[in-house]
């Protein structure tokens, strides 16, 4: 078990976050030194220990380290863009550490930062993680679906259409997919996404604007332009497809 680069005060295979928050900036190449990642047994704070002890948080931690590395690699050394990225990451680390050992708070913090670093990327979240996700992201588009055979209208085409639309939405809109099996056992955490309680048993896309569910889009999705238009109009945005 290895501690993610988020925790290290030594260089690792990714541009480490704590180095960037406490030391002069090195290039991505310089940050990828040959020193091995520290083991979780070396976690120095309760927050780091909580992340190491939770499989989902460890996965989010690694995913965020990769996303941050790629974002950093896309900037020029000494550029304003890079300095802003580092400043944002420092601010995020402070917010993350304020969660202490609260797993729900930590997971939400990671997902929020991932949404910022990878606009257009679909975050795969569990029903249990949905309340925390909604608590920190006021504008979001969420696909409810399943790979369960009992959901006959849940298709790969739905997923492809949703993924294509996601790439055209503004960066401030978080995009997520919530799946569960078996499909007929709807988790109570997803119920607040249904405006009027209708549509049970049919895959659905919920549009959240300013913290409120403003539209449910149900049924088979195979028209990218039509789906984008429905989502964009609900969010009050004008964004060319």
TrEMBL record:
Keyword Signal applies: yes
Domain of life (superkingdom): Bacteria
UniProtKB keywords: Signal
Domain Lysozyme inhibitor LprI-like N-terminal, chain residue ranges per copy: 40-117
Cellular component terms per the entry's GO annotation: extracellular region
Pfam families, sorted: LprI (PF07007)
Signal sequence, renumbered to the chain: 1-33
Database matches in InterPro entries: LprI-like_N (IPR009739), Lysozyme_Inhibitor_LprI (IPR052755)
Protein name: Lysozyme inhibitor LprI-like N-terminal domain-containing protein
Organism: Acidithiobacillus thiooxidans
């Amino acid at each position: 078990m290895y501690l993610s680069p988020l925790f290290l005060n030594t260089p690792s295979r990714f541009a480490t976050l704590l180095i960037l928050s406490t030391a002069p900036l090195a290039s991505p190449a310089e940050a990828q030194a040959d020193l091995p990642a520290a083991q979780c047994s070396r976690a120095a704070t309760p927050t780091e220990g909580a992340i190491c002890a939770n499989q989902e948080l460890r996965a989010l931690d690694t995913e965020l380290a990769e996303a941050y590395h790629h974002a950093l690699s896309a900037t020029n050394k000494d550029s304003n863009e890079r300095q802003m990225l580092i400043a944002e990451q420092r601010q995020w680390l402070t917010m993350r550490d304020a969660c202490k050992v609260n797993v729900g708070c930590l997971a939400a913090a990671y997902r929020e930062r991932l949404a910022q670093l990878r606009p257009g990327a679909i975050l795969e979240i569990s029903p249990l993680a949905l309340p925390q996700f909604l608590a920190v992201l006021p504008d979001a588009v969420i696909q409810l679906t399943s790979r369960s055979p009992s959901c006959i209208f849940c298709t790969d085409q739905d997923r492809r259409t949703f993924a294509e639309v996601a790439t055209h939405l503004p960066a401030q809109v978080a995009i997520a997919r919530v799946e569960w099996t078996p499909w007929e056992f709807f988790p109570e955490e997803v119920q607040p996404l249904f405006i009027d309680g209708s549509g049970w048993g049919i895959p659905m896309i919920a549009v959240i604007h300013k913290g409120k569910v403003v539209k449910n889009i149900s049924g088979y999705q195979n028209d990218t332009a039509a789906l984008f238009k429905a989502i964009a109009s609900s969010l009050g945005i004008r964004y060319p497809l």
